[in-house]
Design goal:
alpha/beta, binds alpha-D-glucopyranose, Rossmann fold, 8-stranded mixed sheet, 18 strands, 2 domains, 6-stranded parallel sheet
Length: 472
Protein backbone atom coordinates (compact mmCIF):
# COMPACT_ATOMS: atom_id res chain seq x y z
CA UNK A 1 0.00 0.00 0.00
CA UNK A 2 1.02 3.56 -0.57
CA UNK A 3 0.54 5.36 2.70
CA UNK A 4 0.93 9.07 3.37
CA UNK A 5 1.38 10.39 6.91
CA UNK A 6 0.92 14.04 7.83
CA UNK A 7 1.85 15.40 11.26
CA UNK A 8 3.14 18.54 12.93
CA UNK A 9 6.12 16.87 14.57
CA UNK A 10 8.22 13.73 14.20
CA UNK A 11 11.41 12.56 15.86
CA UNK A 12 14.26 13.16 15.24
CA UNK A 13 13.45 16.33 13.27
CA UNK A 14 11.08 18.15 15.62
CA UNK A 15 9.87 16.88 18.97
CA UNK A 16 7.57 18.38 21.54
CA UNK A 17 5.60 15.40 22.78
CA UNK A 18 4.61 11.80 22.22
CA UNK A 19 3.19 12.53 18.77
CA UNK A 20 6.77 12.98 17.56
CA UNK A 21 7.72 9.54 18.84
CA UNK A 22 4.80 7.92 17.04
CA UNK A 23 5.17 9.85 13.77
CA UNK A 24 8.91 9.15 13.94
CA UNK A 25 8.64 5.38 14.36
CA UNK A 26 5.30 3.97 13.11
CA UNK A 27 6.08 4.85 9.46
CA UNK A 28 9.33 2.87 9.73
CA UNK A 29 7.47 -0.11 11.15
CA UNK A 30 4.99 0.02 8.24
CA UNK A 31 7.82 0.30 5.74
CA UNK A 32 9.41 -2.76 7.33
CA UNK A 33 6.17 -4.64 6.56
CA UNK A 34 6.70 -3.83 2.88
CA UNK A 35 4.56 -0.71 2.46
CA UNK A 36 5.51 2.48 0.71
CA UNK A 37 5.35 5.24 3.29
CA UNK A 38 5.79 9.00 2.92
CA UNK A 39 5.71 11.36 5.90
CA UNK A 40 4.90 15.06 5.44
CA UNK A 41 6.14 17.57 8.01
CA UNK A 42 6.20 21.37 7.99
CA UNK A 43 9.77 22.63 7.69
CA UNK A 44 9.88 24.40 11.06
CA UNK A 45 12.69 26.88 11.50
CA UNK A 46 14.12 24.75 14.31
CA UNK A 47 14.70 21.72 12.05
CA UNK A 48 18.44 21.44 11.50
CA UNK A 49 18.73 21.51 7.70
CA UNK A 50 22.47 20.87 7.59
CA UNK A 51 22.33 17.95 9.99
CA UNK A 52 19.47 16.22 8.18
CA UNK A 53 20.78 17.11 4.71
CA UNK A 54 17.70 19.00 3.66
CA UNK A 55 18.76 20.78 0.50
CA UNK A 56 17.64 24.09 -0.97
CA UNK A 57 17.15 22.55 -4.38
CA UNK A 58 13.78 20.82 -4.37
CA UNK A 59 10.64 20.46 -6.47
CA UNK A 60 8.10 23.19 -5.88
CA UNK A 61 4.46 23.99 -6.53
CA UNK A 62 2.22 26.99 -6.49
CA UNK A 63 -0.39 26.38 -3.79
CA UNK A 64 -3.71 28.23 -3.85
CA UNK A 65 -4.31 30.13 -0.63
CA UNK A 66 -7.16 32.59 -0.33
CA UNK A 67 -7.11 34.74 -3.45
CA UNK A 68 -3.40 34.24 -4.05
CA UNK A 69 -1.01 31.45 -4.84
CA UNK A 70 1.99 30.66 -2.67
CA UNK A 71 5.20 28.99 -3.77
CA UNK A 72 6.02 25.91 -1.70
CA UNK A 73 9.10 23.69 -1.97
CA UNK A 74 9.09 19.99 -1.07
CA UNK A 75 12.62 18.86 -0.19
CA UNK A 76 12.77 15.24 0.90
CA UNK A 77 15.09 12.75 2.55
CA UNK A 78 14.87 9.00 3.03
CA UNK A 79 15.29 7.57 6.51
CA UNK A 80 14.96 3.87 7.34
CA UNK A 81 12.94 3.22 4.22
CA UNK A 82 10.54 6.12 4.75
CA UNK A 83 10.46 9.17 2.50
CA UNK A 84 10.18 12.31 4.62
CA UNK A 85 8.93 15.39 2.76
CA UNK A 86 9.44 18.77 4.41
CA UNK A 87 6.85 21.29 3.33
CA UNK A 88 8.78 24.50 2.96
CA UNK A 89 7.67 28.08 2.87
CA UNK A 90 9.76 30.10 5.29
CA UNK A 91 7.32 32.98 5.50
CA UNK A 92 4.16 30.92 6.11
CA UNK A 93 5.47 27.78 7.80
CA UNK A 94 8.93 28.53 9.20
CA UNK A 95 8.42 29.22 12.91
CA UNK A 96 10.57 28.81 16.01
CA UNK A 97 7.95 26.79 17.85
CA UNK A 98 5.92 23.84 16.64
CA UNK A 99 2.97 25.03 18.76
CA UNK A 100 2.07 28.27 20.48
CA UNK A 101 2.74 30.80 17.72
CA UNK A 102 0.00 33.38 17.10
CA UNK A 103 -0.72 31.98 13.64
CA UNK A 104 -0.94 28.25 14.49
CA UNK A 105 -4.42 27.85 13.00
CA UNK A 106 -3.65 29.44 9.64
CA UNK A 107 -0.20 27.91 9.48
CA UNK A 108 -1.48 24.37 9.85
CA UNK A 109 -4.42 24.98 7.53
CA UNK A 110 -1.90 26.08 4.92
CA UNK A 111 0.24 23.02 5.65
CA UNK A 112 -2.78 20.79 4.94
CA UNK A 113 -3.49 22.52 1.64
CA UNK A 114 0.17 22.28 0.60
CA UNK A 115 0.26 18.53 1.36
CA UNK A 116 -3.01 18.07 -0.51
CA UNK A 117 -1.58 19.76 -3.63
CA UNK A 118 1.38 17.42 -3.60
CA UNK A 119 -0.83 14.31 -3.50
CA UNK A 120 -2.97 15.08 -6.51
CA UNK A 121 -0.58 13.86 -9.21
CA UNK A 122 -0.13 10.42 -7.75
CA UNK A 123 -2.87 9.68 -5.25
CA UNK A 124 -1.84 7.29 -2.45
CA UNK A 125 -4.04 4.46 -1.16
CA UNK A 126 -4.18 5.91 2.32
CA UNK A 127 -3.86 9.36 3.85
CA UNK A 128 -3.24 9.05 7.56
CA UNK A 129 -3.51 12.41 9.34
CA UNK A 130 -2.56 12.95 12.99
CA UNK A 131 -4.18 15.35 15.47
CA UNK A 132 -5.78 18.72 14.71
CA UNK A 133 -2.76 20.17 12.87
CA UNK A 134 -3.20 17.75 9.98
CA UNK A 135 -6.96 17.38 10.43
CA UNK A 136 -8.14 19.62 7.60
CA UNK A 137 -6.26 17.43 5.15
CA UNK A 138 -9.01 14.84 5.74
CA UNK A 139 -11.95 16.85 4.34
CA UNK A 140 -9.71 18.18 1.54
CA UNK A 141 -8.96 14.63 0.42
CA UNK A 142 -12.48 13.35 1.04
CA UNK A 143 -13.98 16.00 -1.27
CA UNK A 144 -11.47 15.76 -4.13
CA UNK A 145 -12.54 13.85 -7.24
CA UNK A 146 -8.92 13.27 -8.16
CA UNK A 147 -8.47 11.45 -4.87
CA UNK A 148 -11.67 9.43 -5.01
CA UNK A 149 -9.76 6.18 -4.53
CA UNK A 150 -7.76 7.44 -1.55
CA UNK A 151 -9.02 6.43 1.91
CA UNK A 152 -8.53 8.57 4.98
CA UNK A 153 -7.61 7.62 8.52
CA UNK A 154 -7.55 10.23 11.25
CA UNK A 155 -5.76 9.49 14.52
CA UNK A 156 -6.51 11.35 17.73
CA UNK A 157 -3.45 11.56 19.97
CA UNK A 158 -5.05 14.06 22.29
CA UNK A 159 -8.67 15.15 22.08
CA UNK A 160 -8.07 18.13 24.34
CA UNK A 161 -6.42 20.09 21.54
CA UNK A 162 -8.88 20.64 18.69
CA UNK A 163 -7.47 23.66 16.86
CA UNK A 164 -10.66 25.70 17.16
CA UNK A 165 -10.32 28.87 15.12
CA UNK A 166 -12.19 31.44 13.01
CA UNK A 167 -14.36 29.89 10.30
CA UNK A 168 -12.73 32.18 7.72
CA UNK A 169 -9.67 29.89 7.76
CA UNK A 170 -11.69 27.26 5.89
CA UNK A 171 -12.24 29.47 2.87
CA UNK A 172 -8.51 30.23 2.69
CA UNK A 173 -7.80 26.60 1.85
CA UNK A 174 -10.87 26.01 -0.28
CA UNK A 175 -13.13 24.20 2.18
CA UNK A 176 -16.84 25.04 2.39
CA UNK A 177 -17.97 26.80 5.53
CA UNK A 178 -21.13 24.79 6.13
CA UNK A 179 -21.03 24.58 9.84
CA UNK A 180 -21.10 21.47 12.02
CA UNK A 181 -23.74 21.38 14.74
CA UNK A 182 -21.08 21.61 17.45
CA UNK A 183 -19.40 24.66 15.93
CA UNK A 184 -20.42 28.22 16.81
CA UNK A 185 -21.49 30.40 13.93
CA UNK A 186 -18.08 31.99 13.47
CA UNK A 187 -15.93 29.05 14.48
CA UNK A 188 -14.24 26.08 12.76
CA UNK A 189 -13.17 23.01 14.68
CA UNK A 190 -10.54 21.15 12.60
CA UNK A 191 -10.50 18.06 14.79
CA UNK A 192 -14.29 17.69 14.64
CA UNK A 193 -14.20 18.13 10.86
CA UNK A 194 -11.71 15.30 10.51
CA UNK A 195 -13.77 13.08 12.80
CA UNK A 196 -16.90 13.53 10.70
CA UNK A 197 -15.19 13.17 7.32
CA UNK A 198 -12.56 10.42 7.82
CA UNK A 199 -13.26 6.90 6.58
CA UNK A 200 -11.80 5.63 9.84
CA UNK A 201 -11.07 7.43 13.11
CA UNK A 202 -8.62 5.95 15.53
CA UNK A 203 -6.95 6.74 18.78
CA UNK A 204 -3.87 5.48 20.58
CA UNK A 205 -5.35 2.91 22.97
CA UNK A 206 -8.52 0.84 23.07
CA UNK A 207 -9.39 2.16 26.46
CA UNK A 208 -9.15 5.82 25.34
CA UNK A 209 -11.31 4.97 22.30
CA UNK A 210 -14.07 4.04 24.78
CA UNK A 211 -13.39 6.87 27.24
CA UNK A 212 -13.82 9.61 24.64
CA UNK A 213 -17.41 8.55 24.09
CA UNK A 214 -18.22 9.65 27.63
CA UNK A 215 -19.05 13.10 28.96
CA UNK A 216 -16.06 12.88 31.29
CA UNK A 217 -13.41 12.48 28.59
CA UNK A 218 -15.21 13.55 25.42
CA UNK A 219 -14.01 17.20 25.46
CA UNK A 220 -17.38 18.28 23.98
CA UNK A 221 -16.92 15.98 20.97
CA UNK A 222 -18.48 12.90 22.59
CA UNK A 223 -21.66 13.35 20.54
CA UNK A 224 -19.78 13.59 17.24
CA UNK A 225 -17.66 10.59 18.22
CA UNK A 226 -20.67 8.51 19.27
CA UNK A 227 -22.15 9.03 15.82
CA UNK A 228 -19.00 7.53 14.36
CA UNK A 229 -18.47 4.81 16.92
CA UNK A 230 -18.70 2.02 14.33
CA UNK A 231 -15.75 3.58 12.55
CA UNK A 232 -13.76 4.36 15.70
CA UNK A 233 -10.90 2.09 16.76
CA UNK A 234 -8.12 2.06 19.33
CA UNK A 235 -4.61 0.79 18.68
CA UNK A 236 -2.06 1.05 21.44
CA UNK A 237 1.21 2.79 20.56
CA UNK A 238 4.52 1.02 20.35
CA UNK A 239 7.90 2.57 21.00
CA UNK A 240 11.13 2.63 19.05
CA UNK A 241 12.89 -0.26 20.76
CA UNK A 242 16.18 0.51 19.02
CA UNK A 243 16.37 4.11 20.25
CA UNK A 244 15.17 3.02 23.70
CA UNK A 245 17.39 0.09 24.54
CA UNK A 246 19.47 -0.08 27.74
CA UNK A 247 21.62 -2.78 26.13
CA UNK A 248 23.02 -0.34 23.55
CA UNK A 249 22.17 3.12 24.91
CA UNK A 250 25.36 5.23 24.88
CA UNK A 251 23.75 8.04 26.84
CA UNK A 252 23.47 6.07 30.09
CA UNK A 253 26.24 5.18 32.54
CA UNK A 254 26.24 1.41 31.91
CA UNK A 255 24.56 -0.99 29.52
CA UNK A 256 22.20 -3.71 30.78
CA UNK A 257 19.30 -5.98 29.83
CA UNK A 258 16.79 -8.45 31.30
CA UNK A 259 19.37 -11.25 31.31
CA UNK A 260 22.11 -9.05 32.66
CA UNK A 261 20.51 -6.34 34.80
CA UNK A 262 23.65 -5.41 36.80
CA UNK A 263 24.30 -2.15 34.94
CA UNK A 264 21.08 -0.64 36.23
CA UNK A 265 22.60 -0.18 39.71
CA UNK A 266 25.46 1.78 38.14
CA UNK A 267 22.97 3.96 36.27
CA UNK A 268 21.18 4.66 39.55
CA UNK A 269 24.41 5.60 41.29
CA UNK A 270 25.39 7.88 38.39
CA UNK A 271 21.98 9.57 38.47
CA UNK A 272 22.16 10.14 42.23
CA UNK A 273 25.61 11.71 41.80
CA UNK A 274 24.59 13.84 38.85
CA UNK A 275 21.56 15.17 40.73
CA UNK A 276 23.41 15.80 43.98
CA UNK A 277 21.27 13.22 45.81
CA UNK A 278 22.64 10.98 48.57
CA UNK A 279 24.34 8.03 46.85
CA UNK A 280 22.33 5.28 48.50
CA UNK A 281 21.52 2.07 46.64
CA UNK A 282 18.61 1.31 49.02
CA UNK A 283 16.78 4.64 48.66
CA UNK A 284 13.98 4.25 46.12
CA UNK A 285 14.47 6.77 43.30
CA UNK A 286 11.29 8.01 41.61
CA UNK A 287 11.51 9.57 38.16
CA UNK A 288 9.19 12.02 36.43
CA UNK A 289 9.67 13.05 32.81
CA UNK A 290 6.97 15.10 31.17
CA UNK A 291 5.16 18.36 30.89
CA UNK A 292 4.21 19.90 34.24
CA UNK A 293 0.60 20.52 33.26
CA UNK A 294 -2.93 19.59 34.35
CA UNK A 295 -3.19 16.58 32.04
CA UNK A 296 -0.16 14.94 33.58
CA UNK A 297 -1.62 15.06 37.09
CA UNK A 298 0.75 17.72 38.30
CA UNK A 299 -1.59 18.62 41.17
CA UNK A 300 -1.41 15.06 42.54
CA UNK A 301 2.35 15.01 42.10
CA UNK A 302 2.75 18.29 43.93
CA UNK A 303 0.63 17.03 46.80
CA UNK A 304 2.39 13.66 47.01
CA UNK A 305 6.00 14.85 46.80
CA UNK A 306 6.63 15.96 50.43
CA UNK A 307 5.36 12.67 51.86
CA UNK A 308 7.35 10.63 49.36
CA UNK A 309 10.54 12.47 50.36
CA UNK A 310 9.76 12.19 54.09
CA UNK A 311 9.45 8.44 53.82
CA UNK A 312 12.95 8.13 52.41
CA UNK A 313 12.32 8.33 48.69
CA UNK A 314 14.29 10.45 46.25
CA UNK A 315 12.68 12.30 43.36
CA UNK A 316 14.14 13.32 40.00
CA UNK A 317 11.96 15.56 37.84
CA UNK A 318 12.51 16.75 34.27
CA UNK A 319 9.96 18.89 32.46
CA UNK A 320 8.56 22.29 31.69
CA UNK A 321 5.07 23.61 31.85
CA UNK A 322 2.70 25.80 33.71
CA UNK A 323 4.70 28.72 35.27
CA UNK A 324 2.68 28.46 38.50
CA UNK A 325 3.65 24.80 38.91
CA UNK A 326 7.23 25.48 37.88
CA UNK A 327 7.45 27.99 40.74
CA UNK A 328 5.92 25.53 43.22
CA UNK A 329 8.39 22.86 42.19
CA UNK A 330 11.33 25.23 42.55
CA UNK A 331 10.19 25.95 46.08
CA UNK A 332 9.75 22.24 46.81
CA UNK A 333 13.25 21.49 45.54
CA UNK A 334 14.75 24.29 47.62
CA UNK A 335 13.13 22.86 50.76
CA UNK A 336 13.85 19.19 50.01
CA UNK A 337 17.26 18.98 51.67
CA UNK A 338 18.79 17.58 48.51
CA UNK A 339 16.24 14.78 48.03
CA UNK A 340 14.56 16.31 45.01
CA UNK A 341 16.46 17.10 41.83
CA UNK A 342 14.47 19.34 39.53
CA UNK A 343 15.42 20.26 35.97
CA UNK A 344 13.08 22.64 34.17
CA UNK A 345 13.57 22.07 30.47
CA UNK A 346 13.80 19.24 28.01
CA UNK A 347 16.92 17.20 27.49
CA UNK A 348 16.61 13.87 25.69
CA UNK A 349 19.87 12.53 27.15
CA UNK A 350 18.87 13.37 30.71
CA UNK A 351 15.45 11.83 30.10
CA UNK A 352 17.14 8.57 29.20
CA UNK A 353 19.42 8.74 32.25
CA UNK A 354 16.32 9.21 34.41
CA UNK A 355 14.54 6.24 32.82
CA UNK A 356 17.63 4.10 33.40
CA UNK A 357 18.63 5.34 36.86
CA UNK A 358 15.22 5.41 38.57
CA UNK A 359 13.58 2.49 40.37
CA UNK A 360 10.06 3.78 39.85
CA UNK A 361 8.37 6.16 37.44
CA UNK A 362 5.38 8.35 38.32
CA UNK A 363 2.51 9.07 35.90
CA UNK A 364 -0.64 10.11 37.75
CA UNK A 365 -2.21 11.61 34.59
CA UNK A 366 -5.79 12.88 34.75
CA UNK A 367 -6.26 11.44 31.27
CA UNK A 368 -3.75 9.73 29.01
CA UNK A 369 -4.59 8.67 25.45
CA UNK A 370 -1.67 6.24 25.45
CA UNK A 371 1.35 7.48 27.34
CA UNK A 372 4.84 6.49 26.29
CA UNK A 373 6.70 7.12 29.56
CA UNK A 374 5.41 3.91 31.14
CA UNK A 375 6.44 1.90 28.05
CA UNK A 376 9.95 3.39 28.01
CA UNK A 377 10.15 2.73 31.76
CA UNK A 378 9.39 -0.97 31.27
CA UNK A 379 12.18 -1.14 28.74
CA UNK A 380 14.65 0.32 31.25
CA UNK A 381 13.43 -1.89 34.11
CA UNK A 382 11.79 1.01 35.92
CA UNK A 383 8.44 0.25 37.53
CA UNK A 384 5.59 2.66 36.73
CA UNK A 385 3.09 4.01 39.26
CA UNK A 386 0.08 5.26 37.29
CA UNK A 387 -3.51 6.46 37.36
CA UNK A 388 -5.77 3.77 35.84
CA UNK A 389 -6.84 5.72 32.81
CA UNK A 390 -6.47 5.49 29.00
CA UNK A 391 -3.34 3.81 27.78
CA UNK A 392 -1.96 3.63 31.32
CA UNK A 393 -4.80 1.36 32.40
CA UNK A 394 -4.30 -0.72 29.29
CA UNK A 395 -0.57 -1.34 29.72
CA UNK A 396 0.07 -1.33 33.48
CA UNK A 397 -1.11 -4.21 35.72
CA UNK A 398 -0.96 -3.71 39.46
CA UNK A 399 1.35 -6.12 41.31
CA UNK A 400 -0.95 -6.29 44.34
CA UNK A 401 -3.95 -7.11 42.19
CA UNK A 402 -2.49 -9.21 39.38
CA UNK A 403 0.32 -10.94 41.27
CA UNK A 404 2.83 -12.62 38.99
CA UNK A 405 1.34 -10.88 35.95
CA UNK A 406 1.81 -7.46 37.56
CA UNK A 407 4.25 -4.97 36.07
CA UNK A 408 3.58 -1.81 38.10
CA UNK A 409 1.33 -0.05 40.59
CA UNK A 410 -1.88 1.76 39.82
CA UNK A 411 -4.76 3.60 41.47
CA UNK A 412 -8.34 3.98 40.30
CA UNK A 413 -9.68 7.16 41.80
CA UNK A 414 -8.03 10.44 40.81
CA UNK A 415 -7.31 11.58 44.38
CA UNK A 416 -4.25 12.34 46.48
CA UNK A 417 -4.95 9.58 49.01
CA UNK A 418 -5.19 7.00 46.27
CA UNK A 419 -1.93 8.14 44.68
CA UNK A 420 -0.20 8.25 48.10
CA UNK A 421 -1.38 4.70 48.75
CA UNK A 422 0.01 3.44 45.43
CA UNK A 423 3.37 5.12 46.14
CA UNK A 424 3.43 3.60 49.64
CA UNK A 425 2.67 0.12 48.25
CA UNK A 426 5.43 0.53 45.68
CA UNK A 427 7.94 1.59 48.35
CA UNK A 428 6.96 -1.33 50.54
CA UNK A 429 7.45 -3.79 47.69
CA UNK A 430 10.79 -2.22 46.88
CA UNK A 431 12.00 -2.49 50.47
CA UNK A 432 10.53 -5.87 51.44
CA UNK A 433 12.29 -8.25 49.11
CA UNK A 434 15.24 -7.57 46.85
CA UNK A 435 14.61 -10.84 45.12
CA UNK A 436 10.95 -10.25 44.34
CA UNK A 437 11.81 -6.73 43.19
CA UNK A 438 14.53 -7.98 40.82
CA UNK A 439 12.05 -10.46 39.41
CA UNK A 440 9.54 -7.65 38.83
CA UNK A 441 12.21 -5.54 37.12
CA UNK A 442 13.17 -8.40 34.82
CA UNK A 443 9.54 -9.07 33.97
CA UNK A 444 9.01 -5.42 33.08
CA UNK A 445 12.06 -5.47 30.83
CA UNK A 446 10.76 -8.51 28.98
CA UNK A 447 7.49 -6.83 27.98
CA UNK A 448 7.24 -6.34 24.24
CA UNK A 449 6.07 -2.88 23.26
CA UNK A 450 7.81 -2.73 19.92
CA UNK A 451 5.67 -1.60 16.98
CA UNK A 452 5.36 -5.10 15.48
CA UNK A 453 1.84 -6.03 16.60
CA UNK A 454 0.37 -2.52 16.45
CA UNK A 455 1.79 -1.81 12.98
CA UNK A 456 -0.01 -4.92 11.71
CA UNK A 457 -3.22 -3.67 13.26
CA UNK A 458 -2.80 -0.37 11.42
CA UNK A 459 -2.45 -2.29 8.16
CA UNK A 460 -5.77 -4.02 8.93
CA UNK A 461 -7.28 -0.64 9.71
CA UNK A 462 -6.11 0.70 6.34
CA UNK A 463 -7.77 -2.26 4.64
CA UNK A 464 -10.98 -1.50 6.48
CA UNK A 465 -10.68 2.15 5.45
CA UNK A 466 -10.32 1.09 1.80
CA UNK A 467 -13.46 -1.03 2.06
CA UNK A 468 -15.37 1.82 3.62
CA UNK A 469 -14.22 4.14 0.85
CA UNK A 470 -15.18 1.71 -1.91
CA UNK A 471 -18.59 1.16 -0.41
CA UNK A 472 -19.12 4.90 -0.29
C1 LIG B 1 -0.23 12.53 23.09
C2 LIG B 1 -0.96 11.86 24.26
C3 LIG B 1 -0.17 10.65 24.78
C4 LIG B 1 0.20 9.75 23.62
C5 LIG B 1 0.94 10.53 22.54
C6 LIG B 1 1.30 9.69 21.34
O1 LIG B 1 0.92 13.17 23.54
O2 LIG B 1 -1.17 12.79 25.31
O3 LIG B 1 -0.95 9.94 25.71
O4 LIG B 1 1.03 8.70 24.09
O5 LIG B 1 0.12 11.59 22.09
O6 LIG B 1 0.19 9.06 20.77
Amino acid sequence: MQIVFAAAEAAPYAKVGGLADVAGSLPQALAALGHDVTLYLPLHRTIDRAKFQITDRAPFRSVPYGKSRVRVAYPSVVRDGVRVVFVRNDQRLGRNRVYGEPDDAKRYAFFCRAVFEDLRDSPPDIVHAHDWHAALLVPLVARARALAATSTVFTIHNLAYQGRTAASVLALIGLPRARLPIEDRTEANPMARAIVSADIVSTVSERYAKEILTDEFGERLQGVLRERRRRLFGIVNGIDTVAFDPATDRRIAARYGADDPGGKALCKEALQKEGGLAVDPRAPVFGVVGRLVEQKGIDLLTAAAPKLLDSGGQLVVLGTGDPAYEAMWKALAARSGGKLWLTLGFDAGLAQRIYAGSDLFLMPSRFEPCGLGQLISFRYGTIPVVHEVGGLAETVRDVDRDGARGNGFSFAEYATVAFDDAIARAMRAYRTSTEAWSELVRRAMREDHSWGASAKRYVDLYKTASRVRKAA
